[in-house]
Amino acid sequence: MTDVGARCPDCAPRRKLPQFEVGFVWLLRAVGAAAVVGAAVGALWGAALPNTAGFFTLAIGAGVGYCIGESVSIATNRKIGRQLQVIAAGGAVLAYVMHNIVAGYAIVPSDDLWGGIALIVAIFVGAGRLQI
């Protein structure tokens, strides 16, 4: 039995939907998009708003995550999957590190509670954009 009725296994082999088939080339494109957009958005965040705190930081984290998730989605022709979610999360971490470098902080400051929360929000939003 298939989704469209009874078919013999030889005539209608089941295969994954094309949006779930993420090959090596698509993964490379996703890594490139996450790296470029993550670095650019993180540098912009660090230059424009180096000292953000409070709930406004949550909106910044959501925006950063959305930009990275959407860029990975576009670069991979709207494919989705766990590998792409991990790549988007890596792009969000890169954006946070770039923010700290441009703002003149340590790479991972120990007293940056709101920045850590923004990073978590960015990871969830970016990965959520690519969820199955």
- Percentage beta strand: under 5%
Task: Flag low-confidence runs.
Answer: none
- Sketch the major β-sheet: none
Total number of domains: 1
Going by helix content, strand content and strand pairing, the class is mainly alpha
SSE order, one letter for each helix or strand: HHHH
- Structural shape: elongated
Give a count of the beta strands, DSSP E runs of length 2 or more: 0
Explain what the structure shows.
The structure is a single chain. The relative contact order is 0.19. The chain contains four helices and no strands. The chain starts with 23 loop residues before the first helix and ends with a helix. With 132 residues, it is mostly helical. The protein has one domain (22-128). The mean pLDDT is 89. The longest helix has 25 residues, at 24-48.
What is the strand and helix layout of this fold?
Blueprint: H1 24-48, H2 55-75, H3 82-103, H4 113-128
Helix pairs in contact: 1-2, 1-3, 2-3, 2-4, 3-4
Summary, kept brief:
The protein has 132 residues and is an all-alpha fold. Helices cover 64% and strands 0% of the residues. It is elongated, with a radius of gyration of 18 Å.
Key features of this structure:
mainly alpha, elongated, 132 residues, 0% strand, 4 helices
